[in-house]
Amino acid sequence: MRLENLKQDFPKMPEELRERIEREVQKQIGTTKKVERRNTVIIKKSLIAAFAAVMLLATTVFAGVIYQMRSEIKGKYGVNIKGSVEPAENVSTIKMEVSYLPEGMVETEDGKYSYQDALNKGGVSICFYHIDTEDAQFDLLMKNVIENEDIQIGTHDGVYLKLHENKEEEISFNQRIYVAYTEFSYVMEMYVASDVSKQEALKIAEGIQLLSDSSEAKEGVIRSYSWSDYITSQTEQEKIVNDDIWQDQSVLKNTHKIGEAFLAYPKEEELDFGKIEIKVTDVQISDQIELLNLSKLDADFKREIEKEIDAEGKLLPTKINYIKYGDGIQTVDQIVDSREVPQKLVYATVEYTNIGEEELSEVLFLGSLVRIIKEGTQVKMYDGEEAKEGSAWDCAQITGAANYWEMWYYDVHGGEKGNNYIMNLKPGETETVHMAWIVSEEELEYLYLSFDTYGCYELSEHALEIGYVDIRQ
């Protein structure tokens, strides 16, 4: 299966699920640093692998009876969500039907729905856990809860939660709905953004129906997460690879300079993707956005960029918030300080050339801006300021567009949804793509470009084989 097809056929792990896993992993391994990138917190490689494997499981599940789902208060801000399952006979493929969406809300990808004026930002994101453990227990501790309610969704038990948020973005995923589907041993987890009211979210949940379907049609098929794999990812500390570990700088031996060509897929087993050569021909740094072709941005992103500039088109400063973590049970995270930092536009010109003998279609491209810091002969990913011993804060959190790692601007669009695909690339043909990011001025000395289409923000084996492009200023 081609990578781009994989991305289309299987839904992404909801970003807030990644964040919860990361925070729990940090607690287990004794770290306190929160690594925020775009709207997500990057998880460890073992967790990525575990969930990627789950996403590729067959869709046939075991039926059962979840005879109870309820919430239990823990301290001031903790809530335990519990349910029990009694497995039964095998059933066929499970599909989801959604009969109600609020006015103006549309499906943006499998299991994700957003309002048309806030595409890919808010709305709801739906995933399912298949309860497959021997003890058949669903037991999830949620922290930083400021409102909870046991609910009834049709004939199914459920729980509604509202979470405390420090994020200053206009829209954040600060609500959850859990529903136990007794006939399929499934628990639904719905991530609900702040642009969706509690009442509307409950209506959406009430309109969700799971159906047994023996047909081969893919539309609506549920791709569930295995609950046993989720538990394993929380407990197998020895398998966690911390991306905050210093490594010898020799891992960067494959680093490229601006103007140097390299292969997009250097591994022999990736030849099915095509023989594609990448070259960064130019990188410009500016405090203006005049380099951008604003006609390439949809209305949503135009509104986003307007928040980052003044009347003359100059980038406004970004704000760094300093967060003191709460335990999520008796205390919540608090912003204890903040400061402003100038922002810069990073604008790259990238050439993609088909050096093979066959025409390629729907060529996936992805440019990410990674930060790498060096000390002596050691390197590691730079994730912003680190709290020192005795500091009044635990995490420095950049707000706004400077928090994005993936390219948020690109001027070539293709594929079914008009996103980051080159539609056709004939042998010997070159397509030029312009990409852009907004960064804190303080990070210019750490910047490298990654073209790993797996989107892994660590010094991973695959990204290192492709090689980063050094664009440090």
Quick structural overview:
This protein has 473 residues and is mainly β. It is built from 7 helices and 30 strands.
Secondary-structure content class: mainly beta
Rounded mean pLDDT score: 82
Using only CA atoms, what is the Rg? 23 Å
Terminus-to-terminus distance: 39 Å
Portion in helices? 10-25%
Q: What's the number of helices?
A: 7
Largest sheet: 8 strands, mixed
Shape: globular
Q: Extract low-pLDDT stretches.
A: 1-62, 237-243
Q: How many DSSP-defined strands? A: 30
Per DSSP, what share of the residues sits in E-state strands of 2 or more residues?
Answer: 35-45%
Mind explaining what this structure looks like?
With 473 residues, the chain is mainly beta. It has helices spanning 3-9, 15-29, 45-55, 198-206, 227-235, 299-306, 461-466, and strands at residues 36-37, 40-41, 62-74, 78-90, 94-98, 105-109, 112-115, 124-130, 137-142, 145-153, 156-163, 175-181, 186-192, 208-212, 225-226, 247-248, 261-263, 276-286, 318-324, 334-341, 343-354, 360-364, 368-375, 378-381, 395-398, 409-410, 421-425, 430-440, 447-450, 469-470. Strands 6, 7, 8, 10, 11, 12, 13 and 15 form an 8-stranded mixed beta sheet that branches. Strand 10 and strand 11 (156-163) form a beta hairpin.
